[in-house]
Amino acid sequence: MKYGAVARILGIFLVLHSFGLIPPLLISLSIGDGQYMDFVTPLSITLGTGLLVWLFFRNAKHELRRREGFLIVASFWLVLSAFSALPLMIGGHLNFVDAFFEATSAFTTTGATVMTGLDTTAKSVLFYRSELQWLGGMGIIVLAVAVLPVLGIGGMQLFRAETPGPFKDEKLTPRIAHSAQHFWVIYIGLTLACTIGYALSGMSLFDAITHSFSTLSTGGFSTHDASIGYFNSLPIEIITEVFMFLGALNFSIHFLVLRRLNLGYYFTNPEVLAFTVIVAVAVLVSTLVLFFEHSYTSFFTALRHSAFTTISVITSTGYTTQNFAVWPTMLPAFLMFISFIGGCSGSTAGGMKVIRVMLLFKQGYRELLQLIHPAMVRPVKIAGRPIPAPETRAIWGFFAWYVAVFVIAMLLLMLGGMDQVTAFSAVTTCINNMGPGLGKVAANFQEIDDYQKIILSLCMLIGRLEVFTLLVLLSPAFWKN
Fold first, then answer.
1. How far apart are CA 256 and CA 62, in angstroms?
2. 136: closest CA among 188, 214, 68, 195?
3. Which of 167, 168, 160, 164 is nearest to 386 (CA)?
4. Which among 17, 290, 449, 460 could bridge 108 via Cys, Cβ 3.0 to 4.6 Å?
5. Residue 385, strand partner residues
């Protein structure tokens, strides 16, 4: 293991990450909210630590193998989440566990929060929370599209290796750095478009910027305790739905659409089509239940709130206009379950990703047919192309570990005194990077204890890093030379 090379890269990451503290610092100075030292001190610590680590290991320029790649990715999210907690400890007046939970939630674009009284919180702190989500969202895209496939894991690997269309027949760019540059351009462009849409719909410029950060990243942090419901505006809700949906689509498809000026890529990609159908069906089910249970006085009102909440949940954004935890019959549990599906691979959304769910169902159906026709040879296909057996086995391995981590985390929370409903929804919302839950975590995570927050912080990281990236570090074989 080339630990020096890993440390050198982490030092560079810390230096770059420290620059993210400059915008909230400038905002604090410009509006005179007295919070500027809340960013000066963390900036100094983060920048100084990064420079010291880089200087000490600057000559460790070894060629990185797959094992170093796993360690770098896992360390990147864990270390940067810890350093990101510093401004929240000072400016948000949180203890370390709460600040680490909030920073991890922001950086993994989960949206679960321990902070209340957001309407009176300093604007520089609110901006910093949203900025963390925006930066984390871009990091997720690069991770999912460029890094994890190189390490041999991730939903994008399936597309690149085995499926038709843009991911097999059309390469993006020959180098990861070039691909990342293109994704930054798209990400910034969509953020600007979202900001303009919000501003034209009645948001203040500050709210428009901060909410566009957390919408494109599907993070869900708001500057108001009532989230998007604070504005009570149908145009704002529609703009939010559009950009949440765009954030949950594969950014490689956005790239190809813009490069070729051809919207057809959206309509020919099997994962996008499946995702669209799933969203439409989920919205219809929610609307019909709300209407026939007389939760709202009109069908349109039921459609308005069910569409926003369903899209927010399945894209793992977590914005709210209504408290869906008190919706009738099976709807709260239904929404929790669809969050497991999540968005498309290569997007900012959480969950297991639509491509994996598609393949799980296709494999399950094939096994059912083979009970009837044992001699049948029927490969699993996506858009007419067969998926090799190693890839299908990897899907089942991912699913098995996903369920195992979920069950273990839920039992650990219950061991710490949490009730079953809260434990189930807390793990669901954190491992799927979604945000709001049920029970004691329906509004926020302030009531749970530090032990439970640490467990859930790890769930956020495990879910965001596609499970294997962190779990592989627990294997003794990983650390053997």
1. 34
2. 214
3. 164
4. 460
5. 382
- Kindly give, in sequence order, each residue whose CB lies less than 8 Å from that of residue 155, ignoring residues fewer than 6 positions away: 144, 345, 346, 353, 355, 356, 466
Distance CA 372, CA 50 (A): 61
User: Tokens 């950014």 appear where?
Assistant: 251
Q: Which residue has the tokens 């019959």?
A: 329
The string of DSSP letters for 236-275 reads HHHHHHHHHHHHTS-HHHHHHHHHHT-THHHHH-HHHHHH
Would you put residue 64 in left (φ > 0), alpha (ψ -120 to 50) or beta? beta
Q: Which spans in 143-175 are helix H?
A: 148-151, 155-162, 166-169
> Do the Cβ atoms of 130 and 118 come closer than 8 Å?
no
Contact 123, 206 (CB under 8 A): yes
Taking the mean position of all CA atoms in its chain, how far away is CA 51?
29
* 385: three-class secondary structure by DSSP: strand
Q: Over its length of 481 residues, how does the chain's per-residue pLDDT go in tens digits?
A: 778 888 888 888 899 889 999 999 999 999 988 888 889 999 999 999 999 998 998 887 766 677 777 888 888 889 999 999 999 998 767 899 999 999 999 999 999 999 999 999 999 999 999 999 999 888 766 655 555 455 444 444 333 332 333 333 334 444 555 666 788 889 999 999 999 999 999 999 999 999 999 999 999 999 999 999 999 999 999 999 999 999 999 988 998 898 888 898 899 899 999 999 999 999 999 999 999 999 998 999 999 999 999 999 999 999 999 999 999 999 999 999 999 999 998 888 999 999 899 988 888 888 888 888 887 777 777 777 777 777 778 888 889 999 999 999 999 999 999 999 999 999 999 999 998 899 999 989 999 999 999 999 999 999 988 887 788 888 887 777 6
Please give the sequence-ordered ranges of beta strands (E in DSSP) within 28-142, or none if there are none: none
Q: Helix or strand or coil: residue 382? A: strand
- In three-state secondary structure terms, 381 is strand
Pairing of strands 381-382, 385-386: antiparallel
What are the respective helix, strand and coil percentages of the chain, to the nearest 5? 70, 0, 30
CB of 301 within 8 A of CB of 265?
A: no
Q: Residue 436 and residue 149: Cα distance in Å, rounded?
A: 30
Tokens at residue 31, please?
């509006």
Q: pTM score, two decimals?
A: 0.90
